[in-house]
Each structure stands twice: as structure tokens, then as C-alpha cells.
Design goal:
Elements (H helix, E strand, L loop, with lengths): L10 E4 L7 H7 L4 E5 L2 H5 L2 H11 L3 E5 L8 H14 L3 E6 L1 H16 L8 E2 L9 E5 L11 E6 L4 E6 L7 E4 L9 H20 L5 H23 L4 H21 L3 H13 L3 H16 L6 H9 L9 H15 L15 H9 L13 H11 L1
Parallel strand pairs: 1-9, 2-3, 2-4, 4-6, 5-8, 6-9
Antiparallel strand pairs: 7-8
Helix pairs in contact: 4-5, 6-7, 6-8, 6-10, 7-8, 9-10, 9-13, 10-12, 10-14, 11-12, 13-14
Length: about 375
């Protein structure tokens, strides 16, 4: 067994109605003036106001920033950081999916250490702790409340840059399954598959350890048995709880094991063609799992048993590929990149961008730009 390390530096509250514990966490966080970072979609369904009211009832000032898109940009980070400084905030509450949470992490870096977020691009460039932060995810998919990365789009490069450091792990997280039970079926499907991919890629990663494996396996178990039920009926309480917990475990697993080619290749797809992150991942998934089968050491069968409706006695890696294609079809996810507007003319550019991702080095089957071009064309 190779050497590995991990730590559990966070305080996580899980349970139906656990949003009501926010005042307690605000007190523990010594919050005096909160910048609430969320988005207009959550404002439109009343969740932002619900959180604002909880903060205000705790006699804490609250300023709100909502100008965030699904693929947040450097400009959004700069605007939120400026507001943080102008209003005199002392801590951050991030409410939403991966986009508000990633922006909150980036803001937490800038308001302490200054400069531009591109100064911190790459691995371990943040020199120390950031602003105290409480994260409240409203999707079961990104696992951002437990990850050491923030993904921000640099529109000048059409590139999704990553800030990776354990310094940006949120100090507190509230996992309330009630907050994901109003999601549209399409969002639940895309986010749910994304969460499964997090656990699967961490499990197959060249950086995997017994710790990340434990988190990944439990994440796949919970998501695999509940994803279809949750997409079919978001009011299914047990399925919602399993998805929320499974997404969190998947996030913890890849925080320590990294991901692989699926995520490395999906980021350029989102950057150039504005395809939602979860959809890009899901479309690429079967093609890349098929490519990686050459490196399988027996783990494909375990993954298959988590996601498939049928057990088999004579497993072949291709069975996992077909099971993942079937899952996408059942959930209404498009079966090709061309179906979501991706065109062949940018494939070489996307492949070069994907090769710059740190996730490439963690992929179980190593390759080069030519291999990525072939994979993009196959998924097209």
C-alpha cells in the first residue's frame, strides 16, 4: 500500500430541516456581517429570502450578491469581492450549487490576500486560511462544500481555470435534503450523474487511497440506488437524503484523490459551448470509461454493481459502459456532444486545454493530446 494522507477539517450538519441550525453556526463562526452569495434562480423560488430571514433574525447584518451564472467568470468573482469589501462583511454564506460556492471560495481568497484570482490558478498557491465560510448546497451533485477546488471561467481564454488548495475548504456546511426536493427533473439528473462521476473518477484515480476509496464507494452506493428514484420523484425523502449524503461523500473522495479525463475534457466543452457542467460530464462518461477499460484492475465490476439494475455472473468491462449509456438514456441526457451544440472545429483546441488540467495525471489510463482528440470525436 502506498503512502497517503487526509484530514477532516470541516463541521458538517446533515438532516432534514438542518437549515434551521444556521444561527448556531453563525455564532460559532463569529459572524457579524455576512455576504450571502447565491443566484437569481434561488431568489425566484424564495430560498434566498428564507436564508436572509434566518440571518437577520440572528441580529447579523446581511448583504446579498446574486449576479452569478452557471459557469461563473472572473468578473463575477471580482464584483462579489468588491461588494464584500464595500459593505464591511466579515464572513461568507454560500447558498446554491457549485457556481455560488466556487465564487464564494474565490472571493474568500481575494479579500484576504488581494491580487487577481488568476494569481492563484493551479495547485496550492493560496498561502493560508481564507475568510470564514458557511456553505449551504441546494443541489446533490457538485460536492463543492467538501472540495478543495474552485473552478472559474476566464472568458479571455475561453478556459475554466482551477484554484486547488485545502485552504479553501469551507469551515462549515449545512446539508439539508429539503433544499434539493424542489429541483426540476433535468437538474436532478445532470447533478446526480455528476456526483456519481465524482465518486467513480476518484475511485479509479491513480491517486486513490483507502480513505478516498471508502468515501467513493459509499457515495456510489447511495447515489446508485437512489438516482433514478430521485429524478422520478424529488419528494421521495429517502432518495433525497441518499443523494445529498452521497454527493457529499463523493466530493470528499475527489478532494483527496482528484478526478480524471471526464472532468478534464468536460471543462473545455462548457467553456467554449456553454454546455452545463453535469451534462458535459454525463455525455463524455461512457466514451471515456470505455477508453479507460484497458487499465481496469477489477474496479469496473464494483462500479457496475452500484449503478446497474441487473447483477451478472460473468462480468466484462464493456458491461459497465453499456450500463452508463443506459443510465443517461433513462435520465433523458443527450447521447452525443453534437446534440448539445459542440462542433468539430474546436476539438483540437479543447484537447489542448484539457491536457493542461491536473486531472489528466490522475486518470487511470495515461494518454496524449491525440488520444483526447479521438475521444472528443467519438463522443461527438
Amino acid at each position: 500500500m502506498k503512502d497517503f494522507r487526509f484530514k477532516i477539517p470541516q463541521n458538517i450538519e446533515f438532516g432534514l430541516g438542518s437549515l434551521n441550525k444556521l444561527p448556531q453556526l453563525l455564532e460559532q463562526n463569529n459572524s457579524q456581517h455576512v455576504l450571502l452569495i447565491s443566484d437569481k434562480g434561488l431568489e425566484s423560488i424564495g430560498i434566498v429570502k428564507k436564508v436572509q430571514d434566518i440571518i437577520s433574525a440572528s441580529n447579523i447584518q446581511c448583504t446579498t450578491f446574486l449576479d452569478i451564472d452557471p459557469n461563473p467568470t472572473i468578473e463575477m468573482v471580482d464584483a462579489a469581492a468588491s461588494l464584500y469589501k464595500e459593505c464591511g462583511a466579515t464572513s461568507i454564506v454560500a447558498l446554491g450549487g457549485g457556481s455560488p460556492i466556487d465564487v464564494a471560495k474565490a472571493v474568500g481568497v481575494l479579500v484576504v490576500y488581494g491580487g487577481k484570482i488568476t494569481d492563484y490558478e493551479g495547485m496550492h498557491k493560496v498561502p493560508g486560511p481564507i475568510v470564514p465560510m458557511i456553505v449551504i448546497p441546494t443541489t446533490a451533485g457538485t460536492g463543492s462544500e467538501a472540495t478543495a477546488s474552485a473552478v472559474i471561467t476566464d472568458v479571455t481564454r475561453n478556459y475554466k481555470m482551477t484554484v486547488f488548495t485545502y485552504e479553501i475548504l469551507p469551515k462549515y456546511a449545512i446539508l439539508d435534503p429539503e433544499l434539493i426536493m424542489t429541483a426540476p427533473a433535468s437538474i436532478a439528473a445532470a447533478c446526480g450523474v455528476d456526483a456519481f462521476i465524482h465518486a467513480m473518477e476518484a475511485y479509479l484515480s491513480r491517486n486513490a487511497s483507502p480513505f478516498s476509496d471508502a468515501m467513493a464507494e459509499k457515495g456510489m452506493e447511495l447515489i446508485g440506488k437512489s438516482l433514478r428514484q430521485f429524478v422520478a420523484d424529488r419528494t421521495n425523502v429517502e432518495a433525497a437524503c441518499n443523494m445529498m449524503a452521497g454527493s457529499n461523500f463523493a466530493g470528499i473522495s475527489f478532494a483527496w484523490a482528484r478526478l480524471g479525463n471526464i472532468h478534464a475534457m468536460s471543462h473545455p466543452v462548457s467553456a467554449y459551448f456553454h454546455v452545463p457542467h453535469g451534462i458535459a460530464n454525463a455525455i463524455l462518461m461512457p466514451t471515456i470509461v470505455e477508453y479507460n477499460a484497458l487499465a481496469d484492475d477489477g474496479r469496473y465490476e464494483k462500479i457496475y454493481n452500484y449503478i446497474s439494475k441487473e447483477s451478472v455472473s460473468n462480468f466484462k468491462p464493456q458491461m459497465l459502459v453499456e450500463a452508463l449509456r443506459q443510465l443517461n438514456e433513462e435520465l433523458g441526457i443527450p447521447n452525443s456532444l453534437s446534440a448539445v451544440g459542440v462542433t468539430e472545429d474546436l476539438i483540437e483546441t479543447m484537447a489542448n486545454d484539457a491536457m493542461a488540467s491536473g486531472n489528466i495525471l490522475a486518470n487511470p489510463r495515461q494518454g496524449n493530446v491525440k488520444n483526447l482528440i479521438e475521444l472528443y470525436k467519438k463522443a461527438l
